[in-house]
Specification:
Elements lengths: L1 E5 L2 E7 L5 E7 L3 E6 L13 E9 L3 E8 L1 E8 L2 E3 L1 E7 L4 E8 L3 E11 L4 E9 L4 E3 L7
Parallel strand pairs: 11-13
Antiparallel strand pairs: 1-2, 2-3, 3-4, 5-6, 6-10, 7-8, 7-11, 9-10, 11-12
């Protein structure tokens, strides 16, 4: 499945028949297979729902690959700035949906995700990006 394409390259993720996820980057002159998980469905599926950071790709920016278990991601924000959420595909027999979040450069802090579960209920989830970067996502307080 294509994660991100940029001039001169592309990043991919795929699932083996025994449900291990593999990652690769292809550049004009090289193919870099970054590896496959040691175990099937790694990290394990969250129950009842959950969102997990799976990988990072260095493309024409900084792409974070996330997995949403038993739900879909319908929106994301870095502070008060909306982010584009790209649906990549499903793995783990459809239980985990993969999404890509693109940033122009390293970004620290937390991303706020809006999720929708199979029962139709929406929720907010916080996804930590880490503490390295020139940009910062700061949480926004939502009154309601």
């Amino acid at each position: 499945m294509l994660v991100q394409a940029w001039p001169g390259g592309a990043a991919y993720v795929w699932e083996t028949p025994d449900q291990r996820q593999c990652f690769a980057e292809i550049h004009q002159v090289t193919v870099q297979v970054r590896g496959c998980a040691d175990h099937p469905v790694d990290p394990p599926l969250a129950s009842p729902t959950g969102v997990t950071m799976l990988d990072t790709f260095f493309t024409d920016g900084w792409v974070r690959l996330i997995g949403a278990d038993h739900q879909e991601v319908t929106g994301a924000a870095c502070g008060d700035t909306p982010l584009t959420v790209r649906r990549i595909g499903t793995v783990a027999d459809g239980a985990r949906t993969l999404y890509a979040l693109w940033f122009p450069n390293y970004t620290k802090g937390d991303v706020t995700l809006t999720t929708l579960n199979h029962a139709g209920a929406t929720a907010r989830a916080t996804l930590p990006l880490g503490d390295i970067g020139d940009r910062t996502c700061t949480p926004v307080s939502h009154s309601g």
